[in-house]
Amino acid sequence: MWNLAKGKQFLPEVSLQQLKTMYAQEKKAKPKLRLLGAIQRKQEKSIDEIAYVLNTPRDTVYGWLWRFTRRGVGAKDSIKQTGRPTELSLSQRKRLVKDLERGPPHNSTGLWTTKDVRNLLEKKYGQHYVKQHVWRLLVSLGFSMQRPRKQHYQRASEDELLQFKKKLDEKRSTTVRKDLLWAHKMKQLSD
């Protein structure tokens, strides 16, 4: 397993000086570390020595070096993984946004639950999503979580709140008047 070429046989088309130049020009950390591993291998270091110097597991170092032998110097950069394709097409996503902006048909608050969105996706688009993924889909479409503000069961009525605010305003105005009177008296005493 550990019988990769080293020295001049490792990356024969690239010199040690070229690897060092690439290392000096590289800005990203991971490609720089991989290039350092390649430089060490070009200097005839063993995989265990390279792993020790770079403080990296030797399986990882072996994977880097193996990719260098297969792909050349381009192996310093990782290949972008595309991931799983989306289940909804772009046009379906646009229609979904319009459906969501109209609001749920049975809910007067205009707020969707993930369960409601999930049911809509199954009925209209034939796609089955788990609750967690419905939430990810909503966030990716630009929606955010909104909940009605909780209210205590013994909350005061609107009339009681208005009464309280009137009393509070009256108290503030008398306090301001007393402060002005006090300031006026202090000014008279200092004159």
Blueprint of the fold:
Elements lengths: L15 H10 L3 H14 L4 H8 L3 H14 L18 H13 L11 H12 L5 H10 L17 H33 L1
Give an overview of the whole structure.
The protein is mainly α. Among the domains are: 70 residues, no CATH class; 51 residues, no CATH class. The protein is built from 8 helices and no strands. The longest helix has 33 residues. It is elongated and about 95 Å long. The model has no long low-confidence stretch (mean pLDDT 86).
Q: How much strand content do the residues show?
A: under 5%
Report the total helices.
8
Q: Estimate the global geometry from the Cα principal axes.
A: elongated
Flag low-confidence runs: none
| Number of DSSP strand runs | 0
The helix-and-strand class reads mainly alpha
Please outline the major beta sheet: none
CA-to-CA gap between the ends?
A: 99 Å
SSE order, one letter for each helix or strand: HHHHHHHH
Short description:
This protein is an all-alpha fold and 191 residues long.
Keywords:
about 190 residues, mainly alpha, 8 helices
